[in-house]
């Protein structure tokens, strides 16, 4: 089969990869019908993780083509969406809603690599969710978004305890930040403040429910959020970048007793304990337990209540993945969908 | 009046201080009937904060002797307990339960200094809570504990989301850690694991409800907690020390999705963002909003349901405060009550 490989920094190639096959009885093989490039793929792409000869991709919508002997909830032909983390969905950690930290957790990125025609999904019953029927092509991008970027933005909003009547600040106008805006709106936030300087992302943020789009960054953003909230800061802040600057911006934008939900993969972030102590805020985040939210998110998409697929602003065939990575790296695209 | 002053590192003196008087119409003057020495007093005592000529003390039980023109809930003669942070208890932050971050917040330590015969309490209506009547002498130590150390341990347990059926680990066997054990028990925890190597503190921890007292520290403690929890870690962890080592011990003892409540004043703590991200835990803490809990805690003490006053293992007259500081510094005493 054809699949994307990162050969070295900024060297994306689409090559012939070995067809996946059932190894464990809890595996399923799926034919991927849509996949995409994640902001987090840019870390290894840019050489931050020194990855070489690396299969890529962890977001996917597909159809089951083969199941292992112990798979019980899926059959060949089922259309499915899966999480970017493998989970059994039965262990104590999964049952508490933290499938991304399942005792059998494994990142789909780098091991499975779903920027490809087929994928082997371990613990298929606990990782994949069947859609109510064959999805209309128009909602495939939204279902694909549920696989990670929507699920991650949603988790960030839940972790930030977004709710009715609350003011939410979103740090990051990438795809996850924009999904955080959508989630905040859906979860009933009264005011949604987002930091963005890109006209297209500003427009999408407003479409998803942002009430205030600020060009300010860093301490200027913090000052502006305080100005908009009687000096208190936001009730909830979504951190969707992962740098020291964005983390500090998020932390300082929240009021005492408020909540920061952080989902940007932290790179070179050190949180000063004394400041955190006297700020008296809540911090929660990490790799989103997308599997917790998938049934609900699929339902919202199926009923056309949310349209997260709008976050894709460039669609390319899998064979042109390299151009997709370049477009995201150069911020010419917010998020790139790869067709098969 | 007589009052305790830290003249310089390890130099505690009891001197004549000016009698406090009403300055603002929301002030009350109280005659202090009992006060004590806090573990946090040891930071300046040991020279960590380079404090000199500093009034000391922030825990207090007393009787109102004078009120400002705008004080409405108190009258002269009322027996009261107050928080270690001044609060108006009416602002938006107070109403959300974060009185320690009130817009009028001010630390009683270092400004008021309640290791003294009298104290001026600003925002008396929002800071002090009247007891149901004249307290029996036997419960005065417990009411005094509510002023900070019990309220702080209680907040830590609430911040760590302690509840029925949960396993709680407590890092720190000082007075606050011990109060965390008591709070965890009262809040319904099933298993309470505490780290202690001091026979007297171990005994008190067991009396307050600890089910497992471990001599291990650091990574050995973490390993033991995991061993006791099917490899997962505790649901809730109370951090009651404030060093880099204790903070790491707390963070690593909690399971994914679990909660760390931290109340040790953080000194030289840097939390690595990448570890926090992949640990996927909740962090919440800071100066305890004791005022939130005071009415409930006074009620529990009044009804003899809890006996936090047992945490005091040395009682001295105010004039011998210097010996009290020495005893706590040298860990000869867990917590020292000063009588007036």
From TrEMBL, chains A, B:
It holds the Pfam family ADH_N. CDD domains: FDH_like_ADH3 (cd08287). It comes from the Bacteria. Residues 8-338 form the Enoyl reductase (ER) domain. InterPro entries: ADH-like_C, ADH-like_N, ADH_Zn_CS, ER, GroES-like_sf, NAD(P)-bd_dom_sf. GO terms for molecular function: oxidoreductase activity; zinc ion binding. Its cofactor is Zn(2+). Keywords: Metal-binding, Oxidoreductase, Zinc. PANTHER family: DEHYDROGENASE, ZINC-CONTAINING, PUTATIVE (AFU_ORTHOLOGUE AFUA_2G02810)-RELATED, ZINC-TYPE ALCOHOL DEHYDROGENASE-LIKE. Belongs to the zinc-containing alcohol dehydrogenase family. This is Enoyl reductase (ER) domain-containing protein. It comes from Actinomyces glycerinitolerans. The lineage of its organism: Bacteria, Bacillati, Actinomycetota, Actinomycetes, Actinomycetales.
